[in-house]
Amino acid sequence: MSARPHLVIFNPDQWRGDALGHMGNPAVHTPNLDAFAAQDAVSFRNAFCQNPVCTPSRCSFMTGWYPHVRGHRTMHHMLQPDEPCLLKRLKDHGYYVWWGGKNDLVPRQNGFSAYCDCKNSRLPWPVQPGTHDLLRQRAQRGDPDFYSFYLGELPKEPGEEFYRDGDWGHVAAAIEFLANYDGRKPLCLYLPLHAPHPPYAVEEPWYSMNDRARVPPPLPPPPQWRGKPRLLRGIHRRQGLESWSEARWRELRATYYGMCSRTDALFGRLVQALKARGLYDDTAVFVFSDHGDFTGDYGLVEKTQNTFEDCLTRVPLLVKPPRALPVKPGVNEALVELIDFTATVEALAGLPREYDHFGRSLLPLIAGEATAHRDAVFCEGGRLEHEEQASERETASSTDPAEPYWPRVNLQVSDPVAHTKAVMCRTAEWKYVYRLYEDDELYDLRRDPGELDNRIGDPSCAPALAQLKERLLRFFVETADVVPLQTDQR
Fold first, then answer.
1. Is this prediction's pTM over 0.90?
2. Cα(171)–Cα(177) distance, integer angstroms
3. Of residues 314, 316, 312, 310, the one with CA closest to residue 408
4. Mind listing the pLDDT tens digit for each residue in 354-393?
5. Which of 2, 224, 437, 461 sits in a 20 to 30 Å window from 101, CA-based?
6. How much is the average pLDDT of 230-243?
7. How confident is the model at residue 3 (pLDDT cuts 50, 70, 90)?
8. Cβ(193)–Cβ(170) below 8 Å
């Protein structure tokens, strides 16, 4: 065993926290992650991201900073060279960092050499067309359901076991790398995968793997969208899925679950490779997503940048420590945040304190030595009215209705009220959302776990609301900035 544990970061994109068999979902087939949680790992039921879209969330969990600390609130504001990044710190402190998969973290124009020893670009075979390209072909044909992101079954090449996409290719490359790894340095294997990010599409056997009859129906939108933010109403109108039947929503959700099942199968192959190489026991394994997905809830698909429903903000988070450390496998109920990933890796890898952040190590929870961790979790997004640079206007989706993200991104650009800056404070029992240019939201999660009844004007909820506002104020005072460890001469 290396003096420090090896690290595997298995990081799917847009995986809802309830789309796991061991979380009680009767329709999704995830045998590898279920066994992982039952035997070797802790799976956190109440893990929350800090922003509900890709880049801001990744900037957050790779630094331990909330998005507001340095203004990471868009897909086009990534980690700059002067900011800390966990991958770079691991590389600088002796880890061999192998990165296979998407970016959404650091500016492409700067390259990746500061953050990893290998940014994998070698796949074992040519890839088949990407699902976003297939979806755009539907737009060209004038498909009225184009904005549903639904594709369904993917066609495999004759005689092939799987659809040749980047996820399968990067995992195959990682397995090949593991087989030949010389072991001279502790290893960090980072696999930021694409699935189950929409378009909703998957090949057999995963397409038919999950029983449609057991798929939970999506949450309905509240009547007239009463109490819900303007952005959701606008996206719902533009996506145009009001006439979809329950059967069609079940099919979309089952396809999404199939994407989760396929990703679970890839995780199983990676674990087997670690075991075959004799590395599994000496490796800390992290499995988590950057954010969730509507998948039909409220009659919506995809995600938003400034709303914080649990389907978007609650994510899978499973952690297996190396064999030398204690673990109490199973499902843990504590409230945790993805920024806690940073602190946990620091503790495992023995990284020195180089800056201040807000993550807390999960190791006491993993060992079963603690039951409580946080009293509240936070998520934030949106923009100020004048912050046009935070509207994501750079993308073609901001102006072109033939782009699949147009219903959301065009609203972000054209309606600063709908795209208002907002922040969520969630406890085990309540969720409060402060919205700068719109009415706030308040949900009693014990009675209304689907967040359908906004109680912000209910006098009986005033004591709870006052406590949540006070907690939110404390959050901002505590996390408003970070003071560099190095002082300057005067």
1. yes
2. 10
3. 312
4. 999 999 999 999 999 988 999 999 999 999 999 999 999 9
5. 2
6. 96
7. confident
8. yes
CATH architecture of the domain with residue range 6-382: 3-Layer(aba) Sandwich (3.40)
Q: What is the dihedral of CA 171, 174, 180, 183, to 10 degrees?
A: -140
Contact 111, 118 (CB under 8 A): no
Mind spelling out the 3-state secondary structure of the chain?
A: CCCCCEEEEEECCCCCCCCCHHHCCCCCCCHHHHHHHHHCCEEEEEEECCCCCHHHHHHHHCCCCCHHHCCCCCCCCCCCCCCCCHHHHHHHCCCEEEECCCCCCCCHHHCCCCCCCEECCCCCCCCCCCHHHHHHHHHHCCCCCHHHCEEEECCCCCCCCCCCCHHHHHHHHHHHHHHHCCCCCCEEEEEECCCCCCCEEECCCCCCCCCHHHCCCCCCCCHHHCCCCHHHHHHHHHHCCCCCCHHHHHHHHHHHHHHHHHHHHHHHHHHHHHHHCCCHHHEEEEEECCCCCCCCHHHCCCCCCCCCCHHHHEECEEEECCCCCCCCCEEEEEEEECHHHHHHHHHHHCCCCCCCCCCCCCHHHHHCCCCCCCCCEEEEECECCCCHHHCCCCCHHHCCCCCCCHHHHHHHHHCCCCCECEEEEECCCEEEEEECCCCCEEEECCCCCCCCCCCCCCHHHHHHHHHHHHHHHHHHHHHCCCCCCCCCCC
Q: Say if residue 295's pLDDT is above 80.
A: yes
Query: Which letter, b or e, does each residue of 385-403 get, where b requires 16 or more Cβ atoms within 10 Å of its Cβ?
Result: eeeeebbbbebebbeeeeb
Q: List beta partners, residue 337.
A: 48
Q: Where are the domains of the chain?
A: 6-382
Q: Which residues pair with 96 in a beta bridge?
A: 187
